[in-house]
Amino acid sequence: MYKAELWKEENQPSLRNFDERELIDSVNEGLGLRGKIEKIVDQIWKDGFDGIYFIGIGGTYASSMQVEVHTRGKSNLPIFVENAAQFLTTGNKRFTKNSVCILSSVSGNTEEIVRLVERVNEIGGTIFSFIDTPNTVLTQEGRYDYLIVSPKNEQLKFFMVANYLMYKNGDFPNYNKYNEEMEKHLAVALVEVEKAADAWACDFALKKTTNFHERPDLPHYFIGSGNQWGATYSYAMCYWEEQMWIRTKSITCEEFFHGMQEIVEWDTPVTLFIGEDEQRSLGERVARFLPKVCGNYTIIDTKEFKLEGISQENRGTISHLVMRAVNNRVDAYMEHFLRHPLSIRRYYRQFDY
Amino acid sequence: MYKAELWKEENQPSLRNFDERELIDSVNEGLGLRGKIEKIVDQIWKDGFDGIYFIGIGGTYASSMQVEVHTRGKSNLPIFVENAAQFLTTGNKRFTKNSVCILSSVSGNTEEIVRLVERVNEIGGTIFSFIDTPNTVLTQEGRYDYLIVSPKNEQLKFFMVANYLMYKNGDFPNYNKYNEEMEKHLAVALVEVEKAADAWACDFALKKTTNFHERPDLPHYFIGSGNQWGATYSYAMCYWEEQMWIRTKSITCEEFFHGMQEIVEWDTPVTLFIGEDEQRSLGERVARFLPKVCGNYTIIDTKEFKLEGISQENRGTISHLVMRAVNNRVDAYMEHFLRHPLSIRRYYRQFDY
């Protein structure tokens, strides 16, 4: 067996793949879309709607789940999450010409999303698209009612839509103060999370890489709830499986206790994501259980990060972004220790299927 | 290594753990609840409601997902699925005193469900409970508005509620003919599926057991969509993980193509469940992909079973029951080959956590 440890000693870079300026600018660019978003939501509000559906596939489905759970306990607005492929087959009888579909696509040509747009157009519903890449299929006229072309920050964009909808519905009295705080502090707070997590992330990545090298068959388990569930699900599937080709399983904290717990043994690699939203207690329950049966678990708790300038009551709404910042650091070192460029794919978009 | 093959040759029982009469009687007992269910739904309908929420945890959450997807494309009734633990933490602002919670519990004392009932009572919503075990916490007065105590057939019960709601809403014109057909043929059709699948299931269980013995770390992958998703999710987690202690991962067909596909290799054990509801095409896409990258896949397609007396247009509504019948046979032989009584648990309800 080769020695991952040696790689670390010889090559360990400090803050590998880290461009502080770019990260700050990107988050602020995302937050800077608020004016455009509010104008569009004002129009949607004025026109009236019977449902707001965040619809995605893969990573964008995960982001859709995050924004839905963000609103579910705070607002009685009819905000729902849908999977694009399910919408295209089963459909949704409650989705009408008065319904609004909110979607996001990085490539601007994701197959299921292109077909989703056609279907929503047939029904006569409204399409509000966030597309990262200009001059793509989904930025063509007739493919949207409202369009914002801007790279990255998918979750921020979705949450900004939801937050403004909740504000207009009277569910978000501190909306202005909240945005002031985010616009002033969020970008730097997230960059500081990356810096604070970096050394730990390098060690964690080495540990996980070693686990993987020793037992490549063994899945790495990720557990998380609330707005961490989308993070947990997509991190396991869209990062470790898709980009690193490492087996994973993800499960919510509450469902963990109804089956999956039985296959956790003393040396099973388990990572628990704990955030600070309403479902934090579900993560804490797993945190109490794990040490009793497992010696190879890791807990990443967003509470441990400072988040300068973000008030206590607002921390929970960005827990998923904090976790993403931590995992950015993990990914940078996983790529290095695995010697596996995260951009390569075995099958995805490599041939027709 | 011990020889599972020898066990098969020496011990292979025909139709292990199979009581045809008991199976038929049980399904017919479930279907026989229709009169009681309709009477309760009539009252709920008369009182009016702003939402019908099927709420569960673990296996009952899976059944709730199945009934929701069964109605989503057919009816504009406000029928939703919720996870009990999420309802207890995040809550749902749209769930009001005019909302109805439909739940099921085998034990009659599942922790999350007991607390769910308290929470719904606080809100003032209506509780319609199916409890398998008499004289339990959840059958006590004050813990329900409507109660049916009857063992097994959770999915049938949920679907009967949904079907009658859809009938009353004008979404199910063939309701009477449908029930006539089910009441006349379903029980025997399902028993015939078990008989038809038995020899295959024995071989499949031997193959899977051998895979597990050779590479115990390797997860067994289960893929399925539509009303098969609840079956896929709960079969992987509540049967293989919880009852057999075999690692699994379950994923929907549509999401499989957005990450998980990358970790399928030539010898990865993958089982695809294909049903006959609106999402069948999503399963067929996976069926086209798998053979190109994997030589250790199995497809279980409900279409291959006769289902005497069930019309073509109704087959899709019972695909999950057909799959359950097939898997009953698989489980019987897995238990034998693994020498692992399915009733034992490492941790579940063994100590406080």
From TrEMBL, chains A, B:
The keyword Ribonucleoprotein does not apply. InterPro entries: FrlB_SIS, Fructosamine_deglycase_FrlB, SIS_dom, SIS_dom_sf. One of its GO terms (molecular function) is glutamine-fructose-6-phosphate transaminase (isomerizing) activity. Residues 40-173 form the SIS domain. PROSITE patterns: SIS (PS51464). GO terms for biological process: fructose 6-phosphate metabolic process; protein N-linked glycosylation; UDP-N-acetylglucosamine metabolic process. Keywords: Aminotransferase, Transferase. CDD domains: SIS_1 (cd05710). PANTHER family: FRUCTOSELYSINE 6-PHOSPHATE DEGLYCASE, GLUCOSAMINE--FRUCTOSE-6-PHOSPHATE AMINOTRANSFERASE, ISOMERIZING. This is Glucosamine-fructose-6-phosphate aminotransferase. It comes from Vagococcus elongatus.
